[in-house]
Design a protein that fits this description.
The structure is a single chain. With 195 residues, the chain is an all-alpha fold. The chain contains 8 helices and no strands. α6 packs antiparallel against α7. The longest helix has 58 residues. The chain is rod-shaped and about 120 Å long. It starts with a helix and ends with a helix.
Amino acid sequence: MRKIVCLLLFAAIVQSSLAESAAAVEDLAIDLRAITGRLEKLEREVVELRQNQEKSSQAGHVSSETFNEKISAEQVVKVAQNRIEENDLEGARRLLLLYMERHPNDLFVGMMLFLVGDTYFREKDYTKAALNFMEGYKKNPSGSRAAETLYRLALCFHYLEKDDKAKETLDKIRRDYQEKPEWVQKAAAMRQKLG
C-alpha cells in the first residue's frame, strides 16, 4: 500500500512538473513567435529604407516632405550640391536648413552653412550670403573650405561696399591659410585690386 501511495504521489509530482513544463514551453513558443514577428517587421523596414535610399541616390534628390531621418549628412550635402548645380537654389537651401534644424551639432553644419551662403551668393543676396559664410566659418575654421569661405565672405563685403572688411578678410586668408596656395593667391590678387 505504501508503494502505491508513493507511486501515486510520484505520478502526481511528475504530472504537475509536466504541466508546468508544458506551460513554460507554451510561454516560450509565444515569446518566440513575437520575436520572430518583430524581426520580420525590422527586415521589411530595412529593405524599405534601402529602397528609399537607392531611389534618392538615383534621383539625386530628396524632398523636404519625404525627408528621411536616416539620411546621412554626406548624402544631404551631395544632394544639395546637385540641386545647386541644377539651379534649384531654394530646394537646396530648404534641404540644408531642415537637416541643420534637426541636427544642429552635426560635424557637417559648417559645410552646410557654406552651401546655404552659396545659394544666397548666386542670388546676389550678399547680406544673407555673408551671414551664412561667417557662421559656417565660425563652426569650422579649420575645415577644408575655410579659406574658400573667407574668400567668398570677402567678395560679399566688397559687393556690399565694405571694402575695409573685405581687405581684413583677405589679409586673414593670406596670413592664416598658407597651406591653401590657391586661395592665398586669389586673396592676394583681390587685395591688390582693392588697394
